[in-house]
Amino acid sequence: MSANIDKLHDDHSHTPSGIMRWITTTNHKDIGSMYLWFSLIMFFIGGLMALVIRAELFQPGLQLVVPGFFNQMTTMHALVMIFGAVMPAFVGLANWQLPIMIGAPDMALPRLNNWSFWILPFAFTMMLSTLFFESGGPAAGWTLYPPLSLQGGDSMPFVILSIHLLGLSSILGAINVIATILNMRAPGMTLMKMPIFVWTWLITAFLLIASMPVLAGAITMLLTDRFFGTTFFTASGGGDPVLFQHIFWFFGHPEVYILILPAFGIVSTIIPAFSRKKLFGYDSMVYATASIALLSFIVWAHHMFTVGMPLAGELFFMFTTMLIAVPTGVKVFNWVATMWKGSMTFETPMLFALAFIVLFTVGGFSGLMLAMVPADFQYHDTYFVVAHFHYVLVPGAVFAIIAAVYYWLPKWTGKMYNESLGKLHFWLTTIFVNLTFFPMHFVGLAGMPRRIPDYAVQFADFNAIASVGAFGFGLSQLLFVYILFNTLKQKVTAEDKCWDGAEGLEWTLSSPPPYHSFDKAPKID
Amino acid sequence: MKNFKKTYLSLTLFAVFMFSFSYMLVPLYDIFCEITGLNGKTNQTKVLNINENPAERFVKVKFTSTIANSAPFIFEPVDREMTVQIGKIYNTLYTLTNNSNSIKHATASPSVVPSEDAEYFKKIECFCFSQQEINGLETKELPLQFIIDDDLPLDTKTLILSYTMFNTTDQIGSN
User: Fold this and answer.
1) Out of A216, A251, A310, whose CB is closest to B38?
2) pLDDT confidence of residue A4
């Protein structure tokens, strides 16, 4: 055995084959691919849970599942999609793209990188295993509000430990990203010359380091409240359940920007490439991203307007929340101005990026409605909120991830995907995503509460439409998987610079790029 | 490489700081509530100025009670409503009855509505947050002495003092 290991160490160019290659790899491309595959699998697991929810809500009354299991599905769907699908997908994109965009050979901390990834499968195995417990999985919502979350079954400590692990993975990943960006840029690439995707990830990484430890603190308090007799949130000991909401959303609001800022970066990369123009207002894009990130730390209480805050507090959080519309508006304006008089073509990544702009803006507007305190008292905890955050997360974050995959897939694999299938995937996805989430605005405004397995009959029609849309959306994503495998089977190799409008260092590399990206740092003028 | 180490170290320290910050939010939140009187938390730290000649101003004070998580108690105010003169000390009682056959521990937590006026509702003697040990089928009187501060805003005509009684027998047992 030891002789074998010695042999491996003698030969540095040799990588272990089979499964050991993936377990021991420190290569940013391998780890990036693993993150992306992992996130795709979690996307389907979380999607299945969403389909359980939508199947139950197809008709009023209780048909398929018991309410307890329904609550576990809503809770798990959120946890899986946020921590399992969207965040790892962005980290995967960062792993693949950051080194080849800034002219570095690899990430700054390759071994830590490997560890950050391999924490995830274990954390999620533990989290998902709670669904098979006798007392079931967590059912108090992903926000884990006490006192309800303190009254849950045996799953609670397991879920908290797995969230701790996920947080650890994210923090390590973020440290790695910042270290890479700050220390490993090609000579001549000043901060204000960095690709915009790199900028958005740098800011996201700071948000991660600032907010994930706060979540870790909040759930540790939950844990000690339940098992070690502390009373942070237990009213009988002088604690306050509302305090948890404050701490949670102090993490939670930066978290939602963690889920969207890299998406802004992706769209800001793709729109110029297919408009054959430079990104309009690069500097203002950077400042807008930074100000969104800073504002995210002072708006948290808009998630909890109805807990009984004083008027001064509600006004403060209302106005700061609305202030976020300004830098966001700058971004939307810049994207539109980039396209203005450009020689636009509409390949699949561009279609997804365009749909992102339109549909993310719809989600942004419903967010503005929710920011208004008097209106929010009516909208709070209704399907309008569900419609809002799904519009910013599905045609927002998820569309951007899909756009990024189509855009860089030829670079990663050296093969071109099938354009007609890609377009078909786009149209199916876009139609069904709207069919799913648009009716939720209406039932929400009419007063349908969220997180319920049954509802009043007047909401039946719109719910049936949303369920049809959800199944259509889910099935369309199988086409995406088919396209991915179909691409890998293609015989024709993609050109090094397969999009003629694309700019950046990654397009100077071969397709697929060499195992170690830039052995010699490229020069930037 | 020196630069690298500095980056890792400062970022790790930042993460550790933010973790401790989440715990710092707990006292910060209490201080914030205390200063502003938000959240209906009654202020007990201010020095009490008992006016020798109280103003001829009267407000209604209502007393309510809640029992948390269907604990086996009967918990009620003796006076449901009092008309009190501002700046004068008043006494009243709550009664707590243990409906079960075994010894129980109970703790009450107070709240004042409207919460902006909580700081003017001063309790000189109160049973809140102290452990009440109560035998099976026993009834206990819980005395309360309070004063409404002179500075109570003029447009406040009614104050509500609400207590929630928690069964803390399990928590005591585990300690």
Assistant:
1) A310
2) 47
